[in-house]
Give the backbone structure.
Amino acid sequence: MKKYKAYCFDLDGTVYRGENPIVEAKEFIHYLQQQGIEPFFATNNAKMTGAQVQKKLYKMGIEAKANHIMTSAIATAKYIANHFPNKLVKVLGGDGLRQALVDAGMKIVNENPDVLVQGMNPELTYQMLADACYDVQNGAVFVATNGDIKYPSEFGFAPGNGALAELIHNVTDVAPIYIGKPAPHMLEIIRQEFNLQKEDMLMIGDNYDTDILAGINYGIDTLHVNTGVTHTKDVKAKEQPATYTVDTLLEMMK
Ligand SMILES: [Mg+2]
């Protein structure tokens, strides 16, 4: 396999499952680090701050550089700071998103926002969703961290951020700007901040519809690993398959 400068790992289903590391991924990350290659991490999860992701990885024996961690919350904050500087932002998401926006220098308000940013927030109420619909109808730009419709829980599928963003979309007829994968914003921010070329970058993930499509949409090579959501046989049957498919990341060390 070709050597890359930037290996961009998805997290859930690629590097860990819940609180447990995927051992083969961890070994591959250590293998890269022994060669002086610091991996990047790109997750649609907007609930955790970058520091929380770093701590979670550290507990699993993976030392990640803080500025190599990209969550959809961090990417959303950077996107808004770039495209809507000096605008007033209302946050419908959790602490990770709020912190990322403050870190990016944005002014947070509770009323009359120029930009409404929606992220996963388990404390959302009907009233908060209704107010968000009014904000968008009053002209606020509608940005959402990620469009994941559902995620697995121990009880079955739970509604994801995309399900809630689509609720606002349905009511207002305004489609959100989705920042997370499969949109390529996270990869573009990594490329810009680290002065990379697209041919230097590889997107690694378990989910075809988010990780692999983000890489394909962005125009970089992709590696699908069969440790999570999408099965290898389904990836291979796609019109646009991944550049590489492996059962586990141990195959990358051969
Ligand atoms: Mg995943």
Remarks:
- The two ends are 9 Å apart (CA to CA).
- The chain has a mean pLDDT of 95.
- The CA atoms of residues 5 and 130 lie 45 Å apart.
